[in-house]
Amino acid sequence: MEPLVVKDGRIIINVTVVPKSSRDSIVGILGDTVKVAVTAPPVDGKANAYVCKFLAGEFKTAKSNVSILKGETSKHKTIEIKDFRNVPALLKVYVDKSE
Fold it and tell me: 90 forms bridges with which residues in the sheet?
């Protein structure tokens, strides 16, 4: 299974979130997921909201175009990204495979 696929003009991405990190970043590919580190704590959905905001910035789309499909209470999430204008360099190879 690929960490992300492009389907009908949107990206479906499997993410492993590392909250309370020292900085926000797409760390790399971890098996069949993309490891994302965020500074927000995993309290009251703050890390979820921050992951969506961070990915919206990385993919150059509005926060409203990023939603968690599965894994609201887990560090393993499936996220949908619509109307993206950019793909981070680390993930471009997976987008090219899907198109």
Answer: none
Integer angstrom CA distances of residue 99 from 1, 4, 50: 16, 11, 28
Triad 79, 81, 82: Cα angle to 5°: 150
- CATH (residue range 4-84): 3.30.1200.10
Reported in sequence order, the residue ranges of 19-94 that DSSP labels E, i.e. its strands, are 25-30, 33-37, 66-70, 76-82
At residue 32, φ and ψ (nearest 5 deg) are -105, 25
Give this prediction's pTM.
Answer: 0.92
Instruction: Name the nearest CA neighbour of 67 among 58, 75, 77.
Output: 77
| C-alpha count within 13 angstroms, C-beta hemisphere, residue 6 | 14
Q: What does the pLDDT look like over 52-93, one tens digit per residue?
A: 999 999 999 999 999 999 999 999 999 999 999 999 988 888
List the one residue out of 29, 30, 27 whose CA is nearest residue 38. 27
